Amino acid sequence: MRPAQHPNPRPTPGERRPRLHLFDLDGTLLYGSAASVEISRQLGVDAEIRDLERAFAEQKLTPPQFALRACALWSALNDEIVSAAFAAAPWLTGIPEVWARLRAEGERCAVISLSPDFFVRRLQDWGAEVTHGSRWPEVPRAIPNGSTKYPARPLDPAGILSPSSKVKIAEELCAQFGLRPADCVAYGDSLSDTELFAAVPVSVAVNADHHVRSLASHHYTGSDLREAHALVPAAR
Q1: Alpha helix locations (H) across the chain?
Q2: pLDDT tens digits along 163-195
Q3: What single DSSP character describes residue 93?
Q4: Residue 205: in which H helix or E strand, if any?
Q5: How far is CA 98 from CA 68, 216, 224, in A?
Q6: Residue range 23-36: average pLDDT?
Q7: Residue 34 contacts residue 46 (beta carbons within 8 Å)
Q8: Do strands 20-23 and 108-116 pair parallel, antiparallel, or not at all (unpaired)?
């Protein structure tokens, strides 16, 4: 019998250490948009969610406050609407190709987002190895005759991620994969990515605002993740 293999072996001295690529979603993988905006567009509450997005960007709302108010707008939400929002969203091109290339090269990749986990985890079908999003109440497959409104259970503010949560999750993933924060590459665009950018050695500001541009190792403006990823030097 062959000896069991450790699922995440640590590199031996002199061996090239794989990297962990950490991707934000809103404004990064989504070009000029956010999961909440795309869901709200399907529900016809675009103006209301943009007011909340503006208040959040101006730090007038905390992540849990934003989530509670957004959740109150989505009483008609069901799985079909989430699927439609995901399909119609303005994704960067080349996302599955980049993640397939990373896997082929022995690299790891994860998505960490403050957006609802029921939206974020759909990216696993595109090749994301791990996804982490804020814990929102699960979405029903359908709302029969309008008799039940979303959410069936109240949203728990404790399950909503924050910018510091991204650093904590990255550290947990490093421990899981036998890596270090020094082995991470972060991709992001805004204030919610600043703490993670400050904690890793390589970062790519993707269509970014002023909050992260001064922190980033590389800068990309455009709509193709393959071009953004190409800015990252090859691992040694």
Answers
A1: 35-43, 46-57, 63-73, 79-88, 95-104, 117-120, 163-177, 194-199, 210-213, 225-230
A2: 999 999 999 999 999 999 999 999 999 999 999
A3: B
A4: strand 202-206
A5: 34, 20, 10
A6: 97
A7: no
A8: parallel
